[in-house]
Amino acid sequence: MSNVYFNGFLLTLGLIMAIGAQNAHVLRQGLRGEHVLLTIGVSAACDILLIGVGIAGVGGLFVANPDLMAVARYGGAAFLVWYGARALLSALRGGRALDLAEHKRMSRGQALLAAAGFSLLNPHAYLDTVVLLGSIGSQQAEDLRPLFAAGAISASIVWFLLLGYGARLLAPLFAKPMAWRVLDALVALMLWAIAASLLLA
């Protein structure tokens, strides 16, 4: 039975470790020291919701319904293009360092909406959690599915905690404005690349 738990844990960890839009957002919030626990909590809660939905068998609905997939794809691409534009504008303006006294902080509501947006408006998250994890989890014996889900949920929580709070180790580097400009530019390019892959799929 422990193998089922660790299979869920390792599979989920492998899927979410790739730096995507959601991870980049958690990393940036961690570097800023801005609503870190809230961002981690919302990101993990959304993952838990999607994992549960997938293992319950809802992933098949997305696969079987092209219109639903199209709505998710275009809506997610629009969100990523808009947020990428914000990151590029920040990179072009420059002059920002890891100075929390001068940094204009998000409100709690803005931080919550941003974390939820990166978690729920990104079709890649649905593919990873609802479709892939869901299809594998639903193949487990019925009495073992909760154990698989527990492993997957544990991996999500552990990863976001490491990413959000581990970002502080990079704080000395991001005391330099140029490091932020490079990060913002890379985030913008990554978000637009993901949006392009969704639109061209």
TrEMBL record:
Q: Mainly localized where?
A: membrane
Q: Does the keyword Transmembrane apply?
A: yes
- List the record's Gene Ontology CC terms alphabetically: plasma membrane
Please state the span of the N-terminal signal peptide per the UniProt entry: none
Q: Which InterPro entries did the record assign?
A: LeuE-type
| Metal-binding recorded as keyword | no
Q: Where in the cell is it found?
A: Cell membrane
Q: Which residues cross the membrane?
A: 6-24, 36-64, 70-89, 110-127, 147-167, 179-200
Please name the GO terms that the record assigns under molecular function: amino acid transmembrane transporter activity
Q: Print the keywords alphabetically.
A: Cell membrane, Membrane, Transmembrane, Transmembrane helix
What topology in the membrane does the UniProt record assign? Answer: Multi-pass membrane protein
Q: Which PANTHER family match?
A: ARGININE EXPORTER PROTEIN ARGO, ARGININE EXPORTER PROTEIN ARGO-RELATED
- The molecule here is called Lysine exporter LysE/YggA
Species for this entry: Thauera phenylacetica B4P
